[in-house]
Amino acid sequence: MEVRFIRPIGRNTLAVLILFVATLAVACGGAATTAPTEVPAAASPAVDGSGLKTIVATKELGVGKQRVAFLLTSPKALVKVPEVVVTSVFLGEGQAVSETKSAEFHLWPYGVRGSYVTEMNFDRPGQWRLDIVVEGEGVQGKAEAILNVSEQGGVPNIGSIPPLSRNKTLRSVESIEKLTTDYAPDPDLYQITVEDAVATGKPTVVVFASPAFCTSPTCGPQTATLSELKSGHVGEANFIHVEIYDNPDEIQGDLTRAMLSQPIQDWGISGLPDWFNESWTFVLDSDGRVSQRFEGFATLEELESALRSVLPQS
Question: Residue 28 pLDDT more than 90?
């Protein structure tokens, strides 16, 4: 009788198996107990002995005033001090310091991850560097991040008029399951098209997200945040969720069946390099122009501030 020995599972192999199982378990629109995934981005190398590193969450940047979000990590953990100082530096010909701003920390859903957010004015296209200074309790040091700013990106920029999409609504399909992968959808977010919303002359907030399928665990919470924003501004603005996939009721957990929705293509989101179903949010003014845009998760406070800036002043 032949005796075969089974090789024991090593620590590295076991770790990979655990990571694989955990990845399968993560769904963006799942219950609040779902473990968040790591941010799919590489960290910029540390610039001093502090070991601080930067992960840029905003990849699509154009000339003009732009929201910039980034994460900071130390050798021990994610940095969560309330505020850091950021200076932008143009690295092309005629190098010059542009401006210095503060960036505030915003906690993401589940209270595990979070990012720093600030608004910078990029007056020319090319490569820029952010110099970041951290002076918090127990955390001090410097970090940097390299950004590529384009003259005109593929996604509607601030000040532009985006495509007047005729996204699907509850009036054009038989059931809400054909409109969203959200496990507990808010019907109010599927009542009007972008085209008709702009025609009302009211501001509009549009979230492109797939609550059940996205790279990070924030798409479901982003849609829920839109509902929360809506509840505080009933009748003052239009609130729309556009599912990234055109056939959410047919996917059934298998993304090989998924087809991208037309608006996600018309707005240029699906054409971004390395993009894979991460959320985007746009705040349009009463004329239908983009007043603010958010790549990735935007907190209720950020959306509230952006919406209030385009509401009629009483």
Answer: no
